[in-house]
Amino acid sequence: DAKTTQPTSMDCAEGRAANLPCNHSTISGNEYVYWYRQIHSQGPQYIIHGLKNNETNEMASLIITEDRKSSTLILPHATLRDTAVYYCIVIWDYKLSFGAGTTVTVRA
Amino acid sequence: DAEITQSPRHKITETGRQVTLACHQTWNHNNMFWYRQDLGHGLRLIHYSYGVHDTNKGEVSDGYSVSRSNTEDLPLTLESAASSQTSVYFCASSDSGGLEAFFGQGTRLTVV
To answer: Rounded CA gap, A83 and B58, in Å?
Structure first.
C-alpha cells in the first residue's frame, strides 16, 4: 500500500472550514484514498473515500488532485466535536494501515 | 441497529495467563480485523479474517491467535500474556462489497 504523509497537527477555529492535506505520491491506479478519524479513546470512524473524483457526504468533502498524488479533506464548518486525530489511508484491499495522522484541535 | 461490540471493555490480567477478547458484529460482514494501539505506534494490525475458517497474520501477530467459526465473531486470544501486550485493542469489520470499516469501542488490557 502507498505511504501517506500528513502534518502532525493543526488548529482550526470553530465554525470555519478545516482543510486537511495528505500527500500520497506513490499511489497506484487501483488504490483508494480513505479518511478516518479517532476521537479521544474511541474506535476510528469512517469519514469518506474516493478513487479519482471529488466526493462529498454529510460529514466532509474530499478533493483529489488530477494526478492523484495528494488530497485534501475539508470539514466545512468545524465544531468542537470535530477535535480528533484524522488519518489519511491509501489502500486497494480491505486491510487498513494507520499512520500517525493529523491531530486537529478545533478552538472556540 | 447493526453494531460491533467488544468485551470486556477493561481487563487486568497476570503475566503468563491466557486471555481472550471477544468481538461480535451483527452486520453479517465477511471481513473482521484486530488492531492494537499504543502510544507512539498508532494502530497496528494483529490478525484478520475474510470469512468463516479464514484467518491471516497481520504485522504484529506474535503471541496472538484468532479463530473464525461463524460470521459474527472473531475472538482474539493471548496465549500467554506478557507486559508488552498491555494495550488498547480494537476490533473492526467490513463488507466484501465495500471498504468502509466499522470499529468497536476498544478493550483496554493491562498485563501485570
So the answer is: 30
**A72 has pLDDT over 80:** yes
Tell me, what's the pLDDT at B98? Answer: 66
Helix, strand, coil shares, percent, chain B, to 5: 5, 55, 45
Does residue B111 come out as left (phi exceeding 0), alpha (psi in the -120 to 50 range) or beta? beta
Q: Do B101 and A32 touch (CB under 8 A)?
A: no
Name, in order, each residue with C-beta under 8 angstroms of B62's C-beta and a sequence gap of 6 or more. none
Interface probe for A, chosen from B3, B7, B99, B107 (most Cβ of A below 10 Å), is B99
Q: How many CB atoms lie within 10 A of CB B109?
A: 21
pLDDT digits (tens, 9 = 90+) for B15-72: 999 999 999 999 999 999 999 999 877 899 999 999 999 999 999 999 999 999 999 9
Residue-wise DSSP of B56-80: EE-TT-TTEEE--SSSSB--EEESS
Q: Which amino acid is at A89?
A: I
pLDDT of B1 reads 75
